[in-house]
Design goal:
Blueprint lengths: L12 E4 L11 H9 L2 E4 L2 H10 L7 E3 L5 H13 L4 E4 L12 H9 L4 E4 L4 H7 L8 E6 L4 H11 L5 E6 L4 H12 L4 E6 L7 E6 H9 L9 E5 L10 H13 L2 H12 L3 H14 L1
Parallel strand pairs: 1-4, 1-5, 2-3, 2-4, 6-7
Antiparallel strand pairs: 7-10, 8-9, 8-10
Helix pairs in contact: 3-4, 6-7, 7-8, 9-10, 10-11
Length: 287
């Protein structure tokens, strides 16, 4: 069997995704890059040392680059790359520069005319979305909302009419307050999925109506622990259809195939057929 050995890396910044929990969730390419890079820059060198040791990798040089020193460290790393060396950057978990340090570093390297090369891998948001059961073609990743309730509700007011699945990150000590604000602003009918400790030992992915989420969290203190991805279904489609028309369509969909239900609802209500058909599709997807 022919085994390819990694070639020497070209001078560049390699943005390397690392596991979000399970240490085996790392790509072969990421391991090659971390082993071959002249410098490994890490949000927390202790965490990264543990990851490297687990995979039998000895970094040639390991330095800290975090939110408190990122701007100054970026200048030094740009000089390293300009000098012909390769730099691999990792955050504590997941994909750097996505709700994690790294964006300033990437910006500085690009501004200096040097290459930035993504090495994709784990992402908590995408992992949670893939297992959420929310059947929508689009999503809006917001990341962390403000810490304070008033500011958080202001953010949510700006998102209230978005038809896309909303994806947030939240810390355990704020999760109950966050869900209460989601309920207060968005209403109780939307579906929420709480994905906690994704890929870790106590991974939990729970879906329910937004009106039921706070009670579920309060029912067991263990369900409030760990890092959360919070997903909420998008705003229902705006429609000029009357409540009676909506009720008629709902009843017919429960008894008939979609096309027949729409055809009959059009005859009964006189509503626009294409509008009824689109709404029926969305109702079927949500159910």
């Amino acid at each position: 069997m022919h085994i390819e050995h990694p070639q020497k890396l070209e001078p560049a910044l390699y943005v390397v995704a690392t596991p979000i929990g399970n240490l085996r969730d790392i790509t072969l390419r990421a391991l090659d890059v971390l082993a071959e890079a002249d410098v490994v820059a890490a949000e927390d060198t202790r965490n990264t040392s543990h990851l490297l040791k687990h995979h039998g990798i000895h970094a040639k040089q390991l330095i800290a680059v975090h939110q408190h020193n990122e701007r100054g460290a970026a200048e030094k790393l740009v000089a390293v790359i300009q000098g012909g060396q390769s730099v691999a950057f990792v955050s504590d978990a997941g994909t750097p520069a996505v709700s994690d340090p790294g964006a300033l570093l990437v910006q500085a390297v690009l501004a200096a005319g040097q290459r930035v090369i993504p090495v994709p891998g784990a992402s908590a948001a995408v992992a949670a979305l893939s297992a959420s059961g929310l059947n929508a073609p689009h999503f809006l990743f917001y990341g962390f909302m403000p810490n304070k309730s008033a500011a958080r509700r202001t953010v949510l007011q700006g998102l209230i009419n978005h038809p896309y699945t909303l994806v947030f990150y939240e810390a355990p000590h704020r999760i109950v307050e966050c869900v209460a604000d989601l309920h207060a602003v968005l209403g109780g009918e939307r579906r929420i999925v709480l994905a906690r400790e994704v890929t870790k030992l106590f991974e939990t992915i729970h879906g329910c109506a937004l009106s039921e989420a706070e009670a579920w969290l309060q029912s067991d203190a263990n369900q409030q622990r760990g890092e959360f991805v919070v997903l909420v279904s998008g705003a229902p489609p705006a429609t000029g259809l009357s409540a009676q028309t909506l009720s008629t369509l709902t009843l017919l969909l429960a008894e008939l195939p979609l096309k027949q239900a729409v055809q009959l609802a059009t005859k009964i209500t006189g509503a626009n057929r294409s509008e009824l058909y689109q709404l029926a599709l969305e109702m079927k997807n949500e159910s």
